[in-house]
Amino acid sequence: MRGLQFVDVPPGIEGAGALQAALRQRFLDDGAAVVPLPTVSRHVTTAYVDSVRRALSTLPAEVPDDVAAVLPTSGSTGRPRGVLLTRANLEQSAALADLARPGLAQCSWILALPATSIGGLNVIARSLLSGTDLTALPSIGGALPFDPADLIGLIASGPMAVSLVPGQLRAILDNDDATRWLAAAHTVLVGGAAAPEDVMSRARAVGIAAVSTYGMTETTGGCVFDGIPFPGVTTGVRDDGRISISGPVVAAGYADPEPTDGFAVEDGDHRFLTSDVGAWDGERLTVLGRADDIVTVHGVNVALGEIERILRAVVDVHEAAVVALPDATSGHRLVAYVALDGEQSATSTDLANLVRTQLGGAARPEVIVLDALPHLPNGKIDRLALRSAREPGKG
User: Which segment of 46-60, 86-100, 106-120, 224-238 scores lowest on mean pLDDT?
Assistant: First the structure.
C-alpha cells in the first residue's frame, strides 16, 4: 500500500509547479500518491472547492501501491468522486496518444488547463514522462482570465502541443496573432466538452492541427481522438445507448466504491460504463449526449443535447446549455441558458422558435440570455449551478 501526499494547488504558475514537483517525486522517486486540492480563485468557487475537499476528506490513509494520483471528477452533474489513477494509466494514456498522433511524445507542452483537472494533469504527466519542456500560462486555475495574447510570446523548443477547451480555442481564433501561433503547434487537443463543429472547422481551415477528444477522469482523459479510439482501447454502445470504454486507460476505480459504479472487469478486461449515449459504426464513435439528458415533455422524448447543438450553431451564440426542470403538468420544463456574441441580434424568441421548427413544439425551451455561463475549473459548464439558479421568469 502507498501513502498519500495532499497538494494544495493555488491558481497560476505556482500551483502548476507544486503539482509538477509532487508528480515528479511519484514518478522518479516512487513517492506517495498525489492528491491535488484546488483553491478558490476568480473562476473557482468556494462551493466547488468545498465539494472537492469533502469528497477527498474520507480517503483512506493508504491506497493500492500502483496508484499515482487520486483526482476528483468534475462534479458537473453530481458530487465529485475521487478517481484512483495508476502510474500505468498515465503512462499508457501518453503512449497510446503518441500512437494516435505520432510525434506527440516528442512535444513540449503548454499548460492552459487547470492542473487539478485530468486535462491539466495529463499535460504535466506527459511532459514528465517524455522529459520535454512544460510552460504554464499565467491564467491557469483562474488566476487570471484566459488571454490568447499570452500565447504569442511563447517560444517552444522543437514541436509543441497544447490542450484546450472549446471556449479557449474560440477565443484564440478571434485573435489573428494567437491563431498564427497556434497553427505552428504539432497537435491541439480540444476536449472537456463537446467541441462545436463550426469552431473545429474554423481552426482546421487556418491550418491548426485541432483534434477533438472524448474521455473523462475515469478513462485518464481523452482516449478517443476525432471519434477513433486509441489503439488498445475498445469502445462499445450497449442496447440502452450508453457508451462503454475498456482498456489500459480505464482507472482502477473510485476511492469510495459503490455497487452502482460503472467500473467492472469482464473477460479480464477493465471496463467503465459511462453516462453518455452514442453510436458506434465499427470504426468511429459519435457521442450524442448524456443518458440522463433525454427527458419527457408532454409524453415526447426530447434530447437536451440536440437542443444545445441547434443553439450553438447560431452565429450569435457563444455558449448554450439546456436544463430540464420537473413540472407537474408537462413532466419537464426546458430552460436554455445562452451567452451571445457580438451584435447579439438573435432574440430569445428567435432561438426558441428555431428549436421548435427543427425539433417540434415539445422541444421548444424558454431561452434566458446571460452575460456568461458558469464554468467549473476544467472548462465544463456548471450545470448544477444553472439548475439551482433563479427560477425562470422570477427575480
Answer: 46-60
